[in-house]
Design goal:
Layout: E1 2-7, H1 12-24, E2 28-31, H2 42-54, E3 60-65, H3 69-75, E4 83-85, H4 89-97, E5 103-107, H5 113-125, H6 132-146
Parallel strand pairs: 1-2, 1-3, 3-5, 4-5
Helix pairs in contact: 1-5, 2-3, 4-5
């Protein structure tokens, strides 16, 4: 799978950990940084991941900041993006199975690397169930199109 990943300064360490995990799992990873610990603005680093996922360049995206909140808010402003803030394995599974999320956001200051690895592995292994959930995704797209 071709996956984009990015963070702000608050998610730098966890981003590198998750990037390594993705490579270990055999995925192609594009890391949009940042490459320093200097303070940066998370919307700037969410942008290339969201544009790439929405445009079909990447199959999935992972965004990390201190809490994951800012990244998830920024990501969900992009048409075609369904980004879920996840800090537990069950939510990671359900956001793929029911919401067909194409990006997840996590907070480095909220969870540790071990849990983050489990979350990512579970999310990537889960599949959208379709069925009744497909109609709900279509309704979300209709709301998005009307704005």
């Amino acid at each position: 799978m071709n996956i984009a990943i990015s963070s702000d300064h608050g998610g730098n360490t966890l981003r590198k950990e998750i990037g390594s995990l993705l490579e270990e799992l055999g995925h192609q990873v594009t890391d949009f940084g940042p490459q320093t610990k200097d303070s940066v603005d998370y919307p700037d680093y969410a942008k290339p991941v969201c544009e790439g996922v929405a445009g079909g360049e990447f199959e999935a995206g992972i965004l990390i900041c201190g809490t994951g909140i800012g990244m998830s808010i920024a990501a969900n402003k992009y048409k075609g993006i369904r980004c879920a803030l996840v800090h537990d394995v069950f939510s990671a599974k359900m956001t793929k199975c029911h919401n067909n999320s194409n990006i997840i956001a996590m907070g480095e200051r909220v969870i540790g690397a071990g849990l983050a690895r489990e979350i990512v592995t579970t999310w990537l292994a889960s599949e959208f169930e379709g069925g009744r959930h497909e109609n709900r995704i279509k309704k979300i797209a209709e709301i998005e199109a009307s704005n």
